[in-house]
């Protein structure tokens, strides 16, 4: 028998219709980095456990992302589906890797678990924002494979 | 028999499991050929193969049987003896019990069962044996998909072709099929299973027959599939959800025996929350009701009505999304079908209502709605009371009652009659409330109070009004259906009774609606009024409830509404929409009943054509400010868009309107309204009316008349008229151009002769003919009359090549000299285009009236090119300004040089299109101009170096530079208004490709010889223009030579911010190399390093985000090239992408993320 899933039956939420933003093609105006842009990057990450996206599981949402373009700072707050979710660190790692690839290096990215949404909140937060530990995690081929799988473009 | 041993060997090969598949197929085909040729018979084959057919080895037995079965398939259309068929049939029915060789046995049985009579079909008793065997031997659901499919197909062929022999099997057959299809999951099998049930139902229609007795079980099996949920978006077998759903619908409607089970199931699904299920259930209920007996329906009518009602009144706050509105639509059409079905059989003559209609009439909601509307009218009973009693709380629900009545009116003549009779009368008084009916009432109260009272009543009165409109529209829909149907006599008959209530009510309706429009202040109310009039006016002519006079009243009213300046634009648009609807309908009726219509037309029937159009045209004539005129012209364009007859009339009136005043208009200064009006009318004519005239139609003739009128009035202008503002010249030329280009040769010639005689000043309005002894066509004489030349030019541009005229030499000279004169670009450009068109279409054949002999093309080119444009260009090239005394002249010379270059490029295009060799000279001249652009201008005089530099900087932006750069692009690009197919140009196939190939070598050579980096830039710019119009195929074939040039161009141009369009063009060409799998990528693969070197700076090109995006796209496309070349540049590219990730534009950043993703995917491992 395979080990049981952490959250065997997650609630799948309807995704919002993707409004295509009318981007200005005017050369003089500057498009600042904003929450929606960051959200576009992370919404399609696949959950490590289920074939659903983080958006469908309500793990990430546009409101839970703070962007300060001037001081190059991004804060992503995500909500694990269950309190004791052991996948929280993997999800956080996925978000971090994805943003590392999509944002210019000037940004400092903080990734946090939403307050009160996880049993070992402090530990997870610490783990996700410790440069050394992230680097170490990305040395682990199993973890990297898992992360890559989550970041793969989903069909359709 | 010589070949006997041969074919026996084939049998052995086929059966031998060790032989390769291809060999087996070959030998099978060989035997099949022999059988078809009748060299051997099937009996012989059976004898030879006998040992295999009875072998104890299962595999060999199966192979042997498969051989026989496949051969039978091949022999499907070859006659065979009855005895052979008989023995084969009993053999195969026997083999069905051998599960090792089941599949071949099935294939063989199907082949036998499908044999048509003329080549010897299976005997009835054999078919019965076969049927019995399959029923008894096979447990279909235990088989694999393929075998299940075959079994079901065998059933199907037996049921189709051997019905009589299957009937005796009765209950066994039905039970066998039930067992075979139960729990089927494969979509292919399901489709066959559905067809089987349908067939069974038609074979055993009796309620106490084998099917009738099992109807509940059978329905239970098929109803499990409802609603079909089949979500495979792209089924490999091409089966869609719609296929399955329509097949299941056929099963449901196959027999009335299903009725007792069907409606409860469907109603249960209707009450589910799944929208898909609701939609399907509604659809199925409607169709089932239609196909079952009315008695079956009447049992369930109550339930169905309750179900439908809950759907229809469910929407509480209006329709929120598209699915909901679809459900509502479906519910109404289901409702209409039910009514139609319940009225199919009349139990007695007096009662035509039908069960369903009765239910509706007696329904609480409907009765409540009516009472509420009436309550409102009487204003005695507390309206709140009505609301509570009948639970109609929201506007949407009230509206739903209206729509319901509309749907009922749509269902059938009978129901239409009932609805209109019952409801129009009771709804109408409520409508009256809206309109301030008594004038004394109106006058006694202040305007403010009136507005107040309307808005108070608006809620309910509107609902009544809406309901009336829905009913009218429903009845109109029915009328349209009847008018379209091929049996006009029945509709004529029907007219006598079912439209009576509407006809009776028509005067009141018209009165009410028009008063609503006239009185109201609230736009929604006004719109309702217009909608009501539209509903009335757009009945088909044969079934209109309105008399001629009434129709005229309605149309007149709509027209005046829409011409009324005080009304809001929204309302006016709606009124226009109503008129358009009526107009389209008239057009449709004309198509349908052409004969009738023609005869009625003689009687000048009331129609949009003769009621609305004259008013509209009058309004245009009298318009005195731009906005209404614009609106009127738009309306005219919309009306004439679909109707030739309207176009003709519009052209006639507008055409006379303008030329008659042309003289005065032209004399007016810019800015006056008359002037602007003429411009607007010309634009409307050339843009929206003339291009839609069909060739050879009355409309086109009218357009030609307009042009002739224009020329006549130009001819009669006083000689002193010297100036026409370009603002009006351009639309005027456009009208002429658009008309001439589509005319037949005869009319073109007429217009041309006219225009030339006007040009020569020989036109006299009195005689309307050409005079002799006219002024010669030389440039000197035309001084100040260049606009006239341009107008003639606009005629010449669109001429057919076969139109010849004798003055063409002098006309060409005139055009050439006009094209370089210091005049408005509108005039010079048209002259150049006309000259180029003449060269393109030059016909060596002499015109019949020409005595002096033919004038060859060669000389024409000499006149235009060598004597006309070349000298001017050469002069500038030689020394820039030459000995010009002051800067003003220098500027003039430059301008005229730029014009010459433009004209020369056009001439080059014309010649290239007809494949003339002189194009090479012209291209060479262009290259020399480009070459000279980069060189510092050598002044002959006292200018010092500072001034020299200044001059060369100016040249980069100068007109000459731009004209020269664009000249190649001009040659290879398409232009709608000149030298195109629509302008009747002579076009040789592949001329662009040919030109590109021929110019490439000299261009590359010129670039190579030019050592100066800054002067090469001109070549690169013009190369980019050249690429912009050249077909991709030609560019890719020349890839070896083109590709390096693109790269060099990129690296040179990307430092100049003003060259963004050229850079973009080069990038586009580069990317077309990168996506071309056949050979473009192989060229590109050799240049990976240099491509990256160029693209990296371009990806940071400051002034255009399009360029940055395209550069990143190109970089992303490079990844797919050969790994050994791509990998070494990875770090360089990644660095560039990292910068792009922080681009100020979001779209660029997105592209950068995508690009980074593909680049980071390539790793050394």
Automatic annotation (TrEMBL), chain A:
Pfam families: FeS_assembly_P (PF01883). Keywords: Chromosome partition. Residues 38-109 form the MIP18 family-like domain. GO terms for biological process: chromosome segregation; protein maturation. It comes from the Eukaryota. Belongs to the MIP18 family. This is MIP18 family-like domain-containing protein.
Automatic annotation (TrEMBL), chain B:
PANTHER family: DNA REPAIR/TRANSCRIPTION PROTEIN MET18/MMS19, MMS19 NUCLEOTIDE EXCISION REPAIR PROTEIN HOMOLOG. Key component of the cytosolic iron-sulfur protein assembly (CIA) complex, a multiprotein complex that mediates the incorporation of iron-sulfur cluster into apoproteins specifically involved in DNA metabolism and genomic integrity. In the CIA complex, MMS19 acts as an adapter between early-acting CIA components and a subset of cellular target iron-sulfur proteins. GO terms for cellular component: cytosolic [4Fe-4S] assembly targeting complex; nucleus. Pfam families: MMS19_C, MMS19_N. Keywords: DNA damage, DNA repair, Nucleus, Repeat. Gene3D superfamilies: Leucine-rich Repeat Variant (1.25.10.10). Residues 50-313 form the MMS19 N-terminal domain. Residues 728-1118 form the MMS19 C-terminal domain. It is found in: Nucleus. It comes from Marchantia polymorpha (Common liverwort). This is MMS19 nucleotide excision repair protein. It comes from the Eukaryota. SUPFAM superfamilies: ARM repeat (SSF48371). Belongs to the MET18/MMS19 family.
């Amino acid at each position: 028998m395979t080990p049981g899933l952490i959250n065997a039956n997650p609630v799948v939420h309807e995704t919002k219709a993707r409004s295509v933003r009318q981007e200005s093609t005017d050369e003089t105006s500057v498009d600042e980095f904003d929450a929606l842009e960051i959200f576009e990057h992370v919404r399609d990450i696949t959950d490590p456990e289920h074939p659903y996206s983080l958006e469908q599981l309500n793990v990430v949402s546009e409101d839970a992302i703070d962007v300060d373009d001037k001081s190059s700072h991004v804060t992503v707050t995500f909500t694990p589906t269950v309190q004791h979710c052991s996948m929280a660190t993997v999800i956080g790692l996925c978000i971090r890797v994805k943003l590392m690839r999509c944002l210019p290096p000037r940004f400092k990215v903080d990734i946090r678990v939403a307050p009160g949404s996880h049993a070992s909140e402090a530990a997870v937060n610490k783990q996700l924002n410790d440069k050394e530990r992230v680097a170490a995690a990305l040395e682990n081929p199993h973890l990297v494979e898992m992360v890559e799988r989550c970041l793969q473009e989903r069909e359709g | 028999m010589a070949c006997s041993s041969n074919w026996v060997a084939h049998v052995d090969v086929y059966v031998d499991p060790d032989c390769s598949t291809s060999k087996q197929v070959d030998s099978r085909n060989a035997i099949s050929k022999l059988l078809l040729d009748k060299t051997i018979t099937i009996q012989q084959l059976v004898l030879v193969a006998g040992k295999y057919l009875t072998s104890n080895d299962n595999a060999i037995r199966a192979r042997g049987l498969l051989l026989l079965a496949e051969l039978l398939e091949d022999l499907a259309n070859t006659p065979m003896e009855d005895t052979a068929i008989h023995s084969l049939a009993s053999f195969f029915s026997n083999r069905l019990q051998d599960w090792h060789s089941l599949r071949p046995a099935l294939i063989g049985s199907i082949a036998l069962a499908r044999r048509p009579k003329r080549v010897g079909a299976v005997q009835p008793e054999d078919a019965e044996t076969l049927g019995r065997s399959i029923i008894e031997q096979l447990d279909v659901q235990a088989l694999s998909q393929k075998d299940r499919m075959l079994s079901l197909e065998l059933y199907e062929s037996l049921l189709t072709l051997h019905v009589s022999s299957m009937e005796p099997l009765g209950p066994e057959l039905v039970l066998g099929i039930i067992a075979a299809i139960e729990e089927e999951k494969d979509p292919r099998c399901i489709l066959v299973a559905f067809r089987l049930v349908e067939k069974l139902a038609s074979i055993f229609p009796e309620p106490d027959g084998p099917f009738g007795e099992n109807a509940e079980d059978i329905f239970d099996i098929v109803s499990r599939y409802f609603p079909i949920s089949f979500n495979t978006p792209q089924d490999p077998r091409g089966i869609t959800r719609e296929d399955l759903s329509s097949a299941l619908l056929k099963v449901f409607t196959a027999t009335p025996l299903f009725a007792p089970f069907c409606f409860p199931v469907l109603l249960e699904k209707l009450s589910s929350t799944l929208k898909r299920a609701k939609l399907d259930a509604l659809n199925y209920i409607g169709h089932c009701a239609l196909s079952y007996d009315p008695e079956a329906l009447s049992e369930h009518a109550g339930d169905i009505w309750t179900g439908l009602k809950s759907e229809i009144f469910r929407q509480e706050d209006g329709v929120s999304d598209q699915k909901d509105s679809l459900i509502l639509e479906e519910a109404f059409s289901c409702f209409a079908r039910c009514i139609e079905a319940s009225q199919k059989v009349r139990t007695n003559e007096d009662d035509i209502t039908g069960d369903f209609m009765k239910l509706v009439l007696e329904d609480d909601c409907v009765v409540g709605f009516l009472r509420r509307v009436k309550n409102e009218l009487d204003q005695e009973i507390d309206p709140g009371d009505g609301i509570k009693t009948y639970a109609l709380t929201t506007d949407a629900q009230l509206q739903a009652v209206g729509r319901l009545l509309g749907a009922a009116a749509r269902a059938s003549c009978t129901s239409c009659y009932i609805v209109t009779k019952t409801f129009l009368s009771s709804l109408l008084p409520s409508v009256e409330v809206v309109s301030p009916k008594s004038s004394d009432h109106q006058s006694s109260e202040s305007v403010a109070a009136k507005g107040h009272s309307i808005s108070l009543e608006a809620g309910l009165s509107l609902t009544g009004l809406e309901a009336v409109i829905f009913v009218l529209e429903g009845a109109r829909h029915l009328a349209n259906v009847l008018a379209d149907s091929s049996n006009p006599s029945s509709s004529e008959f029907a007219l006598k009774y079912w439209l009576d209530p509407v006809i009776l009510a028509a005067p009141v309706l018209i009165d009410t609606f028009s008063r609503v429009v006239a009185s109201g202040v609230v736009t929604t109310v006004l719109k309702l009024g217009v909608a009501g009039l539209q509903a009335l006016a757009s009945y088909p002519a044969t079934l209109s409830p309105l008399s001629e006079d009434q129709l005229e009243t309605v149309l007149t009213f709509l027209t005046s509404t829409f011409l009324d300046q005080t009304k809001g634009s929204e309302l006016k648009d709606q009124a226009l929409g109503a008129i358009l609807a009526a107009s389209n309908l008239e057009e449709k009726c004309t198509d349908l009943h052409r004969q009738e219509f023609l005869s009625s037309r003689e009687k000048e029937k009331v129609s949009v054509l003769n009621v609305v159009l004259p008013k509209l045209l009058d309004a245009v004539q009298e318009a005195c400010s731009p906005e209404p005129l614009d609106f009127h012209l738009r309306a005219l364009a919309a009306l004439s868009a679909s109707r030739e007859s309207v176009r003709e009339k519009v052209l006639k009136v507008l055409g006379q309107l303008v030329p008659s005043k042309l003289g005065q208009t032209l004399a007016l200064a810019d800015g006056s309204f008359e002037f602007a009006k003429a411009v607007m009318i010309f634009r409307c004519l050339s843009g929206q009316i003339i291009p839609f005239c069909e060739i050879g139609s009355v409309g086109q003739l009218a357009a030609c008349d307009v042009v002739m009128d224009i020329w006549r009035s130009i001819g009669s202008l006083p000689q002193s008229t010297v100036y026409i503002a370009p603002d009006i010249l351009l639309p005027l030329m456009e009208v002429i151009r658009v008309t001439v280009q589509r005319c037949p040769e005869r009319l073109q010639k007429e217009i041309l002769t006219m225009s030339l005689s006007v040009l020569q000043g020989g036109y006299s309005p009195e005689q309307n003919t050409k005079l002799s002894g006219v002024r010669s066509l030389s440039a000197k004489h035309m001084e100040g009359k260049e606009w006239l030349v341009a107008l003639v030019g606009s005629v010449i541009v669109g001429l057919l090549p076969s139109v010849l005229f004798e003055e063409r030499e002098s006309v060409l000279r005139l055009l050439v000299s006009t094209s370089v004169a210091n005049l408005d670009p509108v005039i010079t450009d048209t002259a150049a285009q006309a000259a180029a068109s003449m060269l393109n279409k030059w016909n060596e054949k002499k015109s019949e009236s020409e005595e002096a002999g033919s004038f060859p093309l060669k000389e024409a080119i000499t006149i235009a090119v060598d004597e006309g444009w070349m000298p001017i260009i050469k002069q500038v090239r030689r020394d820039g300004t030459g000995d010009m005394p002051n800067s003003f002249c220098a500027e003039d010379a430059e301008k005229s040089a730029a014009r010459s270059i433009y004209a020369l490029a056009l001439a080059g295009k014309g010649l290239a299109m007809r494949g003339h060799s002189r194009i090479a000279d012209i291209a060479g001249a262009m290259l020399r101009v480009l070459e000279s652009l980069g060189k510092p201008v050598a002044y002959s005089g006292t200018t010092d170096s500072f001034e020299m530099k200044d001059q060369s900087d100016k040249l980069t932006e100068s007109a000459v530079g731009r004209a020269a750069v664009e000249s190649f692009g001009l040659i290879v690009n398409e232009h709608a208004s000149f030298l195109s197919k629509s302008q009747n140009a002579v076009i040789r196939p592949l001329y662009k490709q040919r030109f590109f190939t021929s110019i490439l070598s000299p261009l590359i050579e010129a670039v190579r010889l030019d050592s100066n980096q800054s002067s090469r830039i001109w070549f690169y710019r013009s190369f980019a223009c050249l690429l912009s119009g050249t077909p991709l195929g030609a560019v890719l074939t020349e890839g070896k030579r083109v590709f390096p040039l693109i790269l060099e161009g990129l690296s040179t141009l990307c430092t100049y911010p003003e060259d963004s369009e050229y850079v973009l063009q080069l990038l586009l060409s580069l990317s077309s190399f990168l996506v071309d799998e056949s050979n473009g990528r192989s060229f590109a693969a050799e240049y990976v390093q240099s491509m990256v070197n160029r693209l990296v700076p371009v990806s940071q090109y400051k002034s255009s985000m399009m360029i940055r995006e395209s550069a990143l796209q190109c970089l992303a496309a490079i990844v797919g090239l050969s790994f050994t070349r791509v990998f070494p540049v990875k770090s360089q590219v990644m660095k560039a992408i990292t910068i792009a990730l922080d681009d100020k534009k979001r779209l660029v950043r997105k592209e950068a993320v995508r690009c980074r993703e593909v680049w980071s995917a390539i790793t050394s491992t």
